[in-house]
Amino acid sequence: xxxxxxxxxxxxxxxxxxxxxxxxxxxxxxxxxxxxxxxxxxxxxxxxxxxxxxxxxxxxxxxxxxxxxxxxxxxxxxxxxxxxxxxxxxxxxxxxxxxxxxxxxxxxxxxxxxxxxxxxxxxxxxxxxxxxxxxxxxxxxx
Amino acid sequence: xxxxxxxxxxxxxxxxxxxxxxxxxxxxxxxxxxxxxxxxxxxxxxxxxxxxxxxxxxxxxxxxxxxxxxxxxxxxxxxxxxxxxxxxxxxxxxxxxxxxxxxxxxxxxxxxxxxxxxxxxxxxxxxxxxxxxxxxxxxxxxxxxxxxxxxxxxxxxxxxxxxxxxxxxxxxxxxxxxxxxxxxxxxxxxxxxxxxxxxxxxxxxxxxxxxxxxxxxxxxxxxxxxxxxxxxxxxxxxxxxxxxxxxxxxxxxxxxxxxxxxxxxxxxxxxxxxxxxxxxxxxxxxxxxxxxxxxxxxxxxxxxxxxxxxxxxxxxxxxxxxxxxxxxxxxxxxxxxxxxxxxxxxxxxxxxxxxxxxxxxxxxxxxxxxxxxxxxxxxxxxxxxxxxxxxxxxxxxxxxxxxxxxxxxxxxxxxxxxxxxxxxxxxxxxxxxxxxxxxxxxxxxxxxxxxxxxxxxxxxxxxxxxxxxxxxxxxxxxxxxxxxxxxxxxxxxxxxxxxxxxxxxxxxxxxxxxxxxxxxxxxxxxxxxxxxxxxxxxxxxxxxxxxxxxxxxxxxxxxxxxxxxxxxxxxxxxxxxxxxxxxxxxxxxxxxxxxxxxxxxxxxxxxxxxxxxxxxxxxxxxxxxxxxxxxxxxxxxxxxxxxxxxxxxxxxxxxxxxxxxxxxxxxxxxxxxxxxxxxxxxxxxxxxxxxxxxxxxxxxxxxxxxxxxxxxxxxxxxxxxxxxxxxxxxxxxxxxxxxxxxxxxxxxxxxxxxxxxxxxxxxxxxxxxxxxxxxxxxxxxxxxxxxxxxxxxxxxxxxxxxxxxxxxxxxxxxxxxxxxxxxxxxxxxxxxxxxxxxxxxxxxxxxxxxxxxxxxxxxxxxxxxxxxxxxxxxxxxxxxxxxxxxxxxxxxxxxxxxxxxxxxxxxxxxxxxxxxxxxxxxxxxxxxxxxxxxxxxxxxxxxxxxxxxxxxxxxxxxxxxxxxxxxxxxxxxxxxxxxxxxxxxxxxxxxxxxxxxxxxxxxxxxxxxxxxxxxxxxxxxxxxxxxxxxxxxxxxxxxxxxxxxxxxxxxxxxxxxxxxxxxxxxxxxxxxxxxxxxxxxxxxxxxxxxxxxxxxxxxxxxxxxxxxxxxxxxxxxxxxxxxxxxxxxxxxxxxxxxxxxxxxxxxx
Lengths: 142, 1148
What we know:
Chain A: Residues 1-139 form the AP complex mu/sigma subunit domain. Chain A: GO terms for molecular function: clathrin adaptor activity. The complex is a heterodimer. Chain A contains five helices and seven strands, in the order ββαβββαααββα. Chain A is an alpha+beta fold. Chain A has one domain: Beta-Lactamase, CATH 3.30.450. Chain B has 50 helices and 18 strands. In chain B, strands 3, 4, 5, 6, 8 and 10 form a six-stranded antiparallel β-sheet that branches. By secondary structure, chain B is of the alpha+beta class. Classes of the chains: A alpha+beta, B alpha+beta. At the A-B interface, β2, α1, β3, α2 and α3 of A face α1, α2, α4, α6 and α8 of B.
């Protein structure tokens, strides 16, 4: 996975995580471009888009789009499930997650993402232990 | 959309007011919806409330400045700091620069309590990139946290390490992390493995000593730790699958357990056991079993089981199935499994779900070459997908068709591709598609008409983004023709006609590249169309010239076409008009072309001579020395004109008169002197600059005025855009391999082309019924009735097979290939210490003799460039048997120890390089420089050795692989250098460099423009964990290209008179140099000049600049001064040599 973007239906970026090093300017350009591509897609079309030499895999949950960029030889369906698992994790942590949770607690969303995916690879596939790791540290701080 | 915003807004206050403590998980009451009342909350709210981008910007700037004040205030508490960080992250996400906070993020990570630390780390990972300088400040914090007794702190440190860590500082934390592999908590162990994975990616050789620990992690009792270690293994196996075959059994066992549901339940995902783990394992197995029947044998069972188990109708099972199919088709095939896999693909393809359909197509594309029958089964679906509304499905289908293209179906398929091309707008897709269409068209074109039409479509749709190779290849194809001359002319004529028709259309805009192609073809071949009046063509070209959208580069192409056509017409009004209009054009290159045209049209005979019909493929010998002008110059001198002195020399003389202090002249720019001399002193007749032009359309030469005027080193027989000879060679390189294999395809670089006839044969053997069905289906498509996708199988012969034009070149290249491959074998043999001095000298002398043999006769006839290939060839021929002999004798010794250093040596070897490259033996015979190190990084070291052979300068670049793993596909790329020409191609690829070994490549270099010093730069690319690029530069001096030239005194006298470029200079002799002979000896040794004769206080010397530009030197001593008098056909050469002489004499 090269990067993950979360953005709303209005095209507002909610979360970004890059697993490749790019200059800031480039990132901004990419974000703009991708949001535009994904938002203009028809609902009936597939969840995959060609983009440059990468593939975008996106899925919409309520008003929020989750979008990952992967390489051609990666498994698109699996990436789709990565997104889904991330949403599940968020859901479990926040309890019935909605966009506002992510807006206002985006740092928590980042923590969960970091627990789940590191360096563009899925790391913790056990839902329980991923959430537990976060909760543990939440507890300790109090 | 606006109502959505409104709704969101209306919800916000309610939510914020409620302060719901969170339907947090369980009873912990910990997380949940809090902090909405914080400053971040208010910031977000106020931003949401704004309507314009401008207002938002203002607000954020305000926010940022207040944040800046807060974070830098010493009184700010860490708690507040944490909040500021969160807000900074938010601002950064909205795209505003907040670099002032970076340092505070690091501080926060260092000082804060747990939560603050966590936010600090998070901010660091989001703000900084891998090479950021501030990252170094983090190292200490990480080390401290790794040693902490608090698990959470250790976790955080490990997390940040596996996300972002400076490569140089790995040793500082590595031992700590290794310790963590034994930690009692599995989460710590897992994160430690992740961190090591990261290290493996950024610096593989730093963790090579702990490979056995990875194995331990693989056997860890916790599945999470084991899963984490698989990432490392996947990576390592990708790089070197043969090293891990012994682990196949373990991987199979693990997969069996996973599939059998032996893992803890919380690894299940939608009741599928650990899907990520499964897929990881499947990938590893695929890599291990590739082309290896024995290893594949081990995995058949488990693959079968995976296929069987994955039955639930859910995305994740499909993902696993897809991976399974992929693996099954990658490893050594087993019929049963293949059948099952094919069934699976069927399920995908037929699925109504679009995502699955896409994956099915992708799988089909992958397997189609192995199993074309599968395509037959799914024809209907493929056809449906072809008109699918989702572009990605369409594209994938085209990719599929591209792979099954053969002579029969090419028309339909290309038509489909063109349709898609017209719709797509994204540049990347266009380039990709255009390349494929051009490739197919060239390979399978059924007839001329279709080919030209297709290429027209390619050019007009592809626009100016097409890869420059496409027009180049196309034009070369036209120019070189095929085996049948009649056929060639038909093709050309058709091209001419179609272009004329295209130009007929009023107001049509064509891309520049297309116009260039058109004008070249019209200029070259318009006379084939006998029914068209050249005047008509000229008028069209003329009107194009006046169009505003035509760039000046294209105009030059058009102008060249006009010139060519004009040479074939008796007199033309349009030509006159063109001359008139552009004689005072502001564009200097246009003006020059107009002038040239004017002069040429006044002398028809000369013009005919200059622009013979269809000579684009014949090489032209250019008299670079301009010796034909010598009479003119001599006459001028006879009339008392002063000999020409280049600009810088005049300046130098002035300077030397003025002051005594500065002995060393400032860096000279010979290049500028060349052009100035070209313009002022030796105005060439206009026709001459055309000499290069008539062959190819050298738009570029015309483009730069100086280039067009001067002819020094006119190796540019072809323009930059057109066919540089070396480009041609690179194209040819592939040909020997591809043409013999059945004449299927002309050597085109690119994807492995599908084997058309074979496929067709397979198709025809089986299912006749299906064929009928297929053909009827494709008639239904309507584009062309007779042709079907799976049509009859007659052999699709390669229509456009290129004639191998430069056999000579090819041969010599093959030889050199062989030679270099032979040389490669010598590499590991160390211990070729530099020859001792005596040897060297002996060598030098033999070389001198050889050089004189080969060069003296050349000099006597014309001073033209001889074809270097032939010379090189015979040289190589001579050497060949030797190298063979020595190769075999060396092999018997079989000294391979160096290849496998002991493990301990490997670890130590990081700093000192045990790899000392040695010159191949046959090159040792020549004089050469010492092997110098060019550059290095932690994987590669580059060494350089210059070898001064008789006829060229060879640069031997040694690439040593320091790592313990082999490197694949290492590319050496030289950049175009201003002063030098690298023969053959600029690139060189090492397909494989074994661990701890040295490979080398040799490049022959000529000096194109004379200059005292020059730099050739280049880079080495290779694929390790990421694309890595190592840059280097090589300094070459004029002396590298100077060789002695042996001749008799009489020859010297004759040549002296025939040369006209004079440079005279007096230089002081130091006392140590005493006599003339000593001074001359210095010159002989240092500058490689040849002493022809010494008579009294006069001496004559001769040398040549490679390939064969002579320079003669006459020396006379008088009263402690040495009077040097150079003569050479090349104006810049004496100056260059003079400079070197001065330097040498001062030094000694």
